[in-house]
Amino acid sequence: MKIPFNKPCLAGQEVAYAKEAILSLRHCGNQHYTDLCKKWFREKMGMKNVFFTPSCTDAMEMGTLLFDLKPGDEVILPSYTFSSTANAIVLRGAKPVFCEVKTNTMNIDVDKIESLITSKTKVIMPIDYAGIPCEIDRINHIAKRHSLFVMLDAAQSLGSRYQGKPTGLHSHLAAFSMHETKNVSCGEGGCLVVNEPSLVQKAHFVQEKGTDRSLVLSGVKSKYWWIELGSSFLLSNISAAVLLAQLEYMDFIIEKRKKVTSSYVNLYSSYADRGCLAIPHYPKDVQINHHAFFVIFDKMENRELFLARLREKDVNAYIGYMPLHSSPMGRRFGYHPEDLPITEDASQRIVRLPFYTALADEGLDFCIASMRSVLKSIYD
Ligand SMILES: *Cc1c(COP(=O)(O)O)cnc(C)c1O
Fold first, then answer.
1. CA dist., res. 176 & res. 51, Å (int)
2. What's the 220 CA to ligand 1 centre distance in angstroms?
3. Which H helix or E strand runs over 217?
4. Residue 237 to residues 121, 192, 218, 334, Cα–Cα distance (Å)
5. Whose CA is nearest to atom 2 of ligand 1?
6. What is the pLDDT at residue 132?
7. Confidence band for 67, pLDDT divided at 50, 70 and 90
8. How far is the CA of 370 from the centre of ligand 1 (A)?
């Protein structure tokens, strides 16, 4: 039996909805299925202004355009994130300023943000690693004190909750991903949640290639002009149809994935108690969407042993992100690996375990048994 690292799931109605979208002969963005996805976000998540984009990457690039980020500006983000978070900054000519993480969640270490703020800082971009919400209220507090914007890279946390409310509701902007590797997917897709009222109108313009076409569609104007810097940030109606089928199924997806987290916690906590490794800490005021599970081994050598022996059993775990600050691009911004020792060290000992919705139905016992025997061979 082979356990892949990830596998997309089918909710059931994807083909029917996509067929309907195709046959409707309305294939471009902001059509019927986008409206239904918007309705879902409004009713289910309480998010009023959601812009569906071809990816979370695009959503964040839309966000930095909305913030009017410019050369000379600085943005604080964790080094332990996907390249997209940093690209959104660098594409505007601004400078990424990398912050350490706290290894119990692998989210940004909020205590270290303020010392990175300069007169050039304009935005803070935290992420919700593995679907665990970051400490967004403390981040907002700091941002408010220094008049900064906050955009949350919520790529992994759709369906998670922070202090009882869905993630994505707490910051000026938040970006979700519906990539095939995430809980809810339409292949490639994403959305930008605009909570800051003063940015909503501009978001319509930026999404539509920098034009005020939205005002023509709503009957306010008779012709549209190029009025802003923008791009094509629209999800097609066909992708939105697939997305709707998955959104409607989100609660079931999370419920199934919960079983995977429980099995992992069950297996790994005894090793955590013995100090062999560390498992994620779930703060009291959060509810997770069971997106992923990570383990931080005591030593890099043990991580390598674990990965190799698991691979022999056809179970595919993964080493996670290479820190951005020590990557070739990070070095171009003057960073050295030793600048963020905590991130550097954790990234050499962390493993992301296989995690997908169907694993709950098939393969979980095999996966756990394989891991149990590998852990025994290393630690017992
Ligand atoms: C997946 C992911 C992205 C990219 O999402 P896309 O939809 O593929 O653009 C960005 N940031 C984080 C933290 C992610 O996990």
1. 10
2. 36
3. helix 213-217
4. 38, 17, 19, 43
5. 155
6. 98
7. very high
8. 29
Q: Which atom of ligand 1 is nearest to the CA of 189?
A: 7
Q: Could you tell me which of 62, 60, 31 has the C-alpha nearest to residue 205?
A: 62
Confidence label for 45 from pLDDT (cuts 50, 70 and 90): very high
For atom 1 of ligand 1, the residue with the nearest CA is 155
Q: Degrees (nearest 5) of the Cα angle 197, 199, 205?
A: 130
Pocket test for ligand 1, best of 80, 153, 183 (most atoms within 8 A of CB): 153
Q: If you take atom 8 of ligand 1, which residue's CA is the nearest one? A: 179
Q: How far, in Å, CA of 298 to CA of 302, rounded?
A: 7
Residue 9 is which amino acid? C
Q: Please tell me the distance from the alpha carbon of residue 56 to that of residue 59, in angstroms, as a whole number.
A: 5
Confirm if 315 and 367 have CB atoms less than 8 A apart.
yes
- The alpha carbon of 182 and the centre of ligand 1 are apart by a number of angstroms equal to 9
Percent of the chain with pLDDT over 90: 99
Q: Round the average pLDDT of the chain to a whole number and report it.
A: 97
Predicted pLDDT at 16 = 98
Atom of ligand 1 nearest to the CA of 84: 10
Pocket of ligand 1 (CB under 6 A): 55-57, 81-82, 84-85, 127, 153, 155-156, 177, 179, 190
Characterize 216-254 residue by residue with b for buried, 16 or more Cβ atoms within 10 angstroms of its Cβ, and e for exposed. Answer: eeeeeeeebeeebebeebbbbbbbbbbbbbbbbbbeebb
Match 């394989």 to its residue by tokens. 370
Can you tell me whether residue 144 is helix, strand or coil? helix
Distances (CA, A) of 47 to 174, 248, 340: 11, 16, 35
